[in-house]
Automatic annotation (TrEMBL):
Residues 4-56 form the CsbD-like domain. It comes from the Bacteria. Coiled coil: none annotated. Belongs to the UPF0337 (CsbD) family. Pfam families: CsbD. It comes from Bizionia myxarmorum. InterPro entries: CsbD, UPF0337_stress_rsp, YjbJ, YjbJ_sf. Transmembrane segments: none annotated. This is CsbD family protein.
Length: 61
């Protein structure tokens, strides 16, 4: 899965969350997105793997 596909999936998830939890704002979702990016960065730092490899592993889970 490439970055565009991952971003597309994230947009789908955000839409589903907004529908289910109407009180969530775009700021809440951007915060979560930022935390996910932070987690990927930490995984890259600790494992030495590329972001693409980490995203691929996450997709396979």
């Amino acid at each position: 899965m490439n970055k565009d596909q991952l971003e597309g999936k994230w947009k789908q998830v955000k839409g589903e969350f907004k529908q289910k939890y109407g009180k969530l704002t775009d700021d809440d979702l951007k915060y979560s997105e930022g935390k996910f990016d932070e987690m990927l960065g930490k995984l890259q730092e600790k494992t030495g793997q590329t972001r693409e490899n980490i995203e691929k592993e996450i997709n396979e889970w």
